[in-house]
Write a structure and sequence with these properties.
Blueprint lengths: L15 E4 L26 H7 L17 H14 L4 E3 L5 H4 L6 E5 L8 H10 L6 H10 L2 H6 L2 E5 L4 H5 L3 H4 L3 E4 L6 H9 L7 E3 L19 E3 L1 E2 L16 E2 L2 H13 L4 E5 L16 H13 L5 E4 L5 H5 L1 H13 L3 E2 L5 E2 L3 E5 L3 H7 L12 H14 L5 E6 L6 H13 L6 E6 L21 H18 L2 H23 L4 H5 L6
Parallel strand pairs: 1-2, 1-3, 3-4, 4-5, 5-6, 7-10, 10-11, 14-15, 15-16
Antiparallel strand pairs: 8-9, 12-13
Bound molecules: iron/sulfur cluster.
Length: 513
């Protein structure tokens, strides 16, 4: 058994060391939904949070990480093929001093949200109004200030879906990062690491070429949350979204099952099927879902020994209406293999969906493909019908809505409120978000939505969502005991923080205003 205290006995270090911040290397006690909280500022000691909120996952006997983010595992796999297993290690950040030494040429870091300015962190940090750095940024900087990096000065290469934040904020030099790698890494990452190992000059930033599917390797070691990619890219074309710019692939079933088996054999109890929409798996033209392929995929994963839980990452709503039989067939498996129990004591399954808006005009303008094979004007009906079908099969999704899309009018916001009203009997968890212009999406030149510009109607969207969340996810007696006093306190606090326009919407959360 590896002794965690024995973390400073490097024998010259490994040639290539891969890592991510303490937050991004944790599985939050096997809860991918709580992992969102890493994007908020917190005023509890780091040591306490590392122990309770985002504890490290187990270590191997040699001190390397037993589980690591999936993207980092893909890069590790490519590097091991070329440099050999002895020269590449993936470690928890507290182990950097053990593995970084005079032999270390390069440290590769993966990150999803290094500055805490992704959609979720930006929205809830500004909404709650606590000033201070989100924990994800605190931990990212903490990792970069590790004494072994200062002492041995290996080249630092940072990639991952949040790497763009560093470039956009102009912080690359301040952080001492040699190269920022943006986009899918498979095609170009080896050349960058090869240069770093050989001491050649490195490009400051690299926007990677789209990989050919045959160049995407299997992971060699288990991934955090048991993530296994089943599709990549989307192609529905939503203009605020980055996956749509990626080439769409469905990975072959045997490729997927090999990664599932690898994870299950190594003690990952959960398998997370990574996809931007499970219904895209081997899809037919015009986004008609491939019923047989999807059912076979889920059933095959469930049959793998050691898979206790299956979690689908994302799904689109239109295919649910297009072929409800798929939901009927896969839901019993997903519920049986679910980690989640509802208030009635029975299990339910969940995944993330995007409602985004109730406005047909905005759907048509920014996300025409989202409801294919249906026309944009059908969007509200598609949302309502799809959620009824999901709920009937004990699937209670987590849904994002985007407030402040460029050019959003009062009528658009009213349409969203009308849609929310039609969904008032649906079991769902809403995550209303502020529009954030990410660097690798079509709307990257637009301005972020800002709390200061929200109207009372926008605040109504937030409060309606949170009223529904409280109604659906807390027992009535708990609600009654703590709710009114707490709500009044919040209302006064928000009134102070964001001005008079928030008072009525917040008080409406109680449903008694
Ligand atoms: S459907 Fe989802 S994943 Fe696809 S482009 Fe739209 S937002 Fe992105």
């Amino acid at each position: 058994m590896f002794n965690r205290n024995n973390s400073k006995n490097n024998n010259g270090g490994k040639k290539i060391v891969l890592t991510a911040s303490a937050i991004e290397m944790s599985d939050f006690n096997l809860n991918p939904f709580i992992a969102f909280s890493g994007g908020f500022p917190m005023f509890l000691p780091k040591e306490f949070l590392r122990k309770r909120l985002y504890p490290p996952t187990p270590f191997n006997e040699d001190g390397t990480a037993k589980f690591a983010p999936y993207g980092l595992r893909k890069v590790e796999s490519i590097l091991i093929e070329y440099f050999g297993e002895d020269n590449v290690v993936t470690v928890y950040p507290s182990m950097l001093e053990k593995f970084v030494g005079e032999n270390t040429k390069v440290v590769g870091i993966s990150t999803m949200d290094p500055l805490g300015i992704g959609f979720v962190s930006r929205t809830y940090t500004s909404l709650v109004g606590i000033s201070g750095k989100p924990m994800t940024a605190v931990e990212f900087e903490d990792m970069l200030s590790n004494p072994s990096l200062k002492k041995y000065k290996p080249k630092i290469i940072v990639g991952g879906s949040g790497a763009w934040q560093i470039v956009k904020a102009g912080l690359q030099d301040q952080f001492g990062i040699d190269t920022v790698v943006m986009g899918e890494a498979e095609e170009d990452v080896l050349e960058i690491f090869r240069k770093a190992v050989n001491g050649e000059e490195l490009p400051k930033q690299v926007v990677c070429r789209k990989p050919k599917s045959e160049n995407i390797p299997l992971i060699k070691k288990p991934s955090l949350f048991g993530v296994v990619e089943v599709t990549r890219g989307c192609g529905r074309g939503c203009q605020f979204c980055s996956p749509t710019l990626r080439q769409r692939y469905s990975f072959p079933l045997d490729h997927i099952l090999k990664e599932v088996e690898l994870n299950a054999k190594n003690g990952t109890r959960m398998i997370t099927l990574q996809t931007d929409d499970i219904f895209l798996y081997k899809t037919h033209p015009n986004f008609i879902p491939n019923r047989e392929a999807i059912i076979e995929l889920i059933a095959s994963v469930a049959r793998v020994e050691g898979v206790d839980y299956i979690q689908i990452a994302h799904a689109a709503l239109a295919p649910v209406v297009c072929d409800p039989v798929i939901v009927k067939e896969i839901a019993p498996i997903l519920v049986e293999k679910s980690r989640w129990t509802y208030l009635d004591g029975e299990k339910y399954a969940t995944f993330e969906i995007g409602i985004e808006t109730g406005s047909v005009r905005l759907i048509e303008k920014y996300m025409r493909g989202k409801m294919l094979p249906y026309p944009p004007e059908k969007w509200p009906e598609v949302v309502v019908r799809a959620l009824e079908i999901l709920n009937d099969n004990r699937i209670y999704p987590l849904a994002t809505l985007i407030t402040g899309l460029p050019g959003e009018t009062e009528d658009d916001v009213i349409a969203t409120l009308e849609l929310l009203d039609r969904l008032k009997n649906i079991r769902i968890f809403y995550v209303p978000l502020l529009f954030t212009s990410e660097m690798d999406c079509i709307l990257n030149r637009e301005r972020h939505a800002d709390l200061r510009n929200l109207t009372e109607l926008h605040w109504d969207v937030f409060s309606t969502c949170w009223r529904q969340n409280i109604k659906v996810w807390t027992l009535e007696e708990v609600r009654n005991k703590i709710f009114i006093g707490g709500l009044l306190t919040y209302a006064l606090y928000y009134r102070w923080l964001h001005g008079p326009k928030v008072l009525k919407p917040i008080l409406r959360i109680s449903g008694k205003y």
